[in-house]
Amino acid sequence: MNISKYEQRTLHALAQGGAIHVVKDGRGKIVEVNCATRDGWRLSDCTLAIFNKLKKRGFIASRKSLPYRITRDGLAAVRAQLDNR
User: Fold this and answer.
1) How far apart are CA 79 and CA 18, in angstroms?
2) For residue 28, is it within any domain?
3) In this structure, are strands 19-24 and 30-36 parallel, antiparallel, or unpaired?
4) Is 82 contained in some domain?
5) Helices (H), the chain
6) What is the pLDDT of residues 34-77, one digit of tens each?
7) Which of 10, 16, 29, 53 qualifies as a FRET site for 77, CA 20 to 30 Å off?
8) pLDDT band at residue 84, thresholds of 50, 70 and 90?
9) Helical H segments across 16-84, by residue range
10) Is 85 part of any domain?
11) pTM above 0.85?
């Protein structure tokens, strides 16, 4: 499956324990997304367009009004990356 570099980075951060927090307007429409890594850093590659693509493909989901996390399909789609700390 073709996944862009920015989608891959976002999925990799989520696979390591990150989450996507959304900001909604008064009507319930998502207007802003904030992707946080497990260490508390903000991922700037995660934009509203990337969020919508991942959500449409079913790679991320929110359960019980919690922040968005990676799904099993997302884990299967993410490629392994070397994590240099």
Assistant:
1) 16
2) yes
3) antiparallel
4) no
5) 5-15, 48-57, 72-77
6) 999 999 999 998 999 999 999 999 999 999 999 999 999 999 99
7) 29
8) low
9) 48-57, 72-77
10) no
11) yes
